[in-house]
């Protein structure tokens, strides 16, 4: 059961990333983040009320608030990077954010095994290979790589923070709810600032009609991300964490396959090799 839940996590995260990146090609990234997270807030709020999760309220939820403040920055960076593409490179690089919780473990006294040290080295080589061909004469690709690394750090920080925000299933629902509310507040504030500076909150062509038409897809992105957090948490609690982490870390494969199947993306050989090495590094880090 744990393995199946972890595989479900990778599927949900992979599809959410693909959907978010695809939507960002049609509307502003901040709008995608805010609207998708608003849907998640409504659904999670109903779940918290139904399960009595508010009884778990306590100071540990400040970790969820911190995770919610970091989350929109990571999601915005990642969706922008996915929109710049290619998704088959961006998504695996984003998965190296697992190094952040590994670093937190080091600070707390844990020592990585040989596989984890190897994973760090392999992931760094993957970054260089995946980004290197784009550094000369292609500012857009360089921007995509930098945005992806920023997103990876943010995702890793969220993983480390949300892990400290709850100890029970109902507490997890409450922590995720608080996190998403903070996501909406921070993301909504950033959207307002962006609009005041002259940016568009709605697509230039179609405006609000495009957003309404894309609402089911936006809802899927927000709910898939929340569901993935839930299935991973249960998988880690009901089985070996290393197995759950390795299987859940396969989500970039889902994104890459979706991009190849839907968008017909084709990667250069060195880019594909770099993306593959980044994914291998992630698996080694999680499995070590």
From TrEMBL:
Keyword Lipid metabolism: no
Transmembrane segments: 28-49, 61-79, 114-132, 144-163, 169-195, 207-228, 240-263, 270-287
Keyword Transmembrane part of the UniProt annotation: yes
Alphabetical keyword list: Membrane, Transmembrane, Transmembrane helix
InterPro entries found in the cross-reference section: EamA_dom, EmrE-like
Domain EamA stretches: 3-130, 144-285
Family, as annotated: Belongs to the EamA transporter family.
Entry protein name: EamA family transporter
Organism: Streptomyces monticola
Biological classification of the source: Bacteria, Bacillati, Actinomycetota, Actinomycetes, Kitasatosporales
């Amino acid at each position: 059961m744990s393995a199946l839940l972890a595989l479900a996590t990778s599927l949900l995260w992979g599809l959410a990333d693909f959907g978010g990146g695809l939507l960002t090609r049609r509307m502003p990234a901040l709008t995608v983040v805010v609207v998708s997270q608003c849907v998640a807030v409504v659904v999670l709020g109903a779940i918290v009320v139904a399960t009595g999760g508010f009884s778990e309220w306590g100071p540990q939820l400040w970790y969820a608030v911190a995770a919610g403040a970091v989350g929109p920055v990571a999601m915005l960076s990642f969706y922008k990077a996915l929109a710049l593409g290619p998704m088959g490179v961006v998504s695996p690089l984003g998965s190296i954010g697992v190094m952040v919780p590994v670093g937190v473990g080091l600070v707390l006294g844990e020592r990585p095994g040989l596989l984890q040290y190897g994973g760090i080295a392999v992931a760094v080589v993957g970054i260089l290979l995946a980004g290197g061909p784009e550094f000369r004469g292609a500012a857009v690709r360089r921007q995509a790589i930098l945005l992806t690394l920023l997103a990876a750090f943010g995702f890793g920080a969220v993983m480390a923070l949300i892990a400290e925000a709850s100890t029970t299933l109902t507490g997890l629902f409450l922590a995720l709810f608080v996190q998403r509310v903070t996501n909406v507040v921070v993301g909504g504030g950033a959207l307002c600032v962006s609009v005041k500076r002259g940016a568009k909150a709605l697509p230039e062509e179609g405006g609000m009609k495009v957003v309404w038409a894309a609402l089911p897809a936006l809802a899927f992105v927000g709910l898939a991300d929340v569901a993935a957090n839930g299935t991973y948490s249960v998988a880690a609690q009901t089985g070996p964490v290393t197995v759950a982490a390795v299987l859940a870390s396969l989500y970039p494969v889902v994104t890459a396959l979706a991009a190849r199947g839907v968008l017909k993306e084709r990667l250069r050989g060195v880019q594909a090799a770099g993306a593959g090495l980044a994914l291998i590094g992630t698996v080694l880090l999680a499995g070590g």
